[in-house]
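Q: How would the structure tokens look for this protein?
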Amino acid sequence: MKKRALLVLLALALVVSLVAFAACAKEEEVVTEEWQWPERLLVTAMSTRSPIYSAFVAWTTPWSADTGVTVRVIAESDSRLQQLWVKEGRFFTVAPHQARSMMYGLKGQARRDWGPWLSAIWMPAGGVYWGCVTLADSGIETIYDIKPGMSAIVITLAEEPQQSIYAFLAWAQVDPEDITFVPLGATAQQARFLQDGKGDFSLCYYTTPTWLEVEASPHGLRWLPLDAEKDPEGAARFLEVYPWTGWGVATGGIPSSEGVAMALTISPYITRFDTDPELVYRIVKWVDENYDRIKEHPWCAAMTLENLLDVAVHNYEPIHDGSVRYLEEKGLWTEELEARRQYNIELLTLWVDSYQTAISMADERGIDVNVDNEEWQEFWDKYKKDHDLPMLVNFQGPGIEQPSYSDFYENWEEVRPKW
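A: Here is the predicted structure in token form.
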């Protein structure tokens, strides 16, 4: 009996040892497993002639060489389609941000597969100066030289001109109804239309290459100064209509823009909120450690942790988990920044959930959720108003009262400044 019991004990010990060995081997396998880069990365930009396209090429080329990842930069002039690609996870990133027209589900955007989605910022794409441009011989020298009866060349893919043009007109104290809008769908057409006299002025970024052609023409190019310090009342009128920008003095762009006071937006790269945090972390880490290799490009020069922290304070889209991890490693992330990030996540989630709820309610009522169906658009607009959804603005955070979306958009005629 004693011999048999001893054999049983030895057998049990052997089994326990084998199980423990297998567990240790499995644990070691998990620990030592090397993370693999994806085989390819798809990113999207507006146009091959846009500054963001060249910025993509500037940083992804050395990154691809270091990591072995094949990168494709896909040019697409329809920003709605770009957003959809990233929303669906087919593309890694786009710049500059999630279009507010899609976030709010405005006319032309309120499709079942579009509308608000949970996006996240992983890195600044560029410090973008932008402003009002005209021909140097046009006679328009200041923003106040813009008068009723003039025409504005605008890039728009919706029924209405972009809200930013209304802000410039607010500064100039000109009613939009007294301006003729010349709508275009691509930035490459802007310069040509202005040069050919098909408009009096336009809005654009200070690095857009097509403006070099106008600058070199006999007409020349002029940027209208937007000095918020010298004209705080004009700047206040601007921000009342378009509260998503700051101010600065342009440098490093088209020569004629050098030293001109303009609007300044730190434009972020965005991706899906649930994009692999490890992938985002490693790309952010590479950008930070290889900044000297990419900083000569005027947009890539803004891809710094300092600007990422600035975006964390001044943008309604939350910072991605992978980016936060790297900032934590560098000792730069704070409890206050995390509180604001969580606040932003809740805001975006509220809009995403509200849109899906409105779609479900419309389906139950037999309302066709179609971008061309006015009944659906009216139903969604009423839903936003009835539920008093908050407006998404950069200058917000915990403890700061949010402006109401319905007050800003639904009652536009009542709240619009009487210039």
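The first strand starts at residue 40 and ends at 45.

The CA atoms of residues 305 and 330 lie 10 Å apart.

Upvote if useful.
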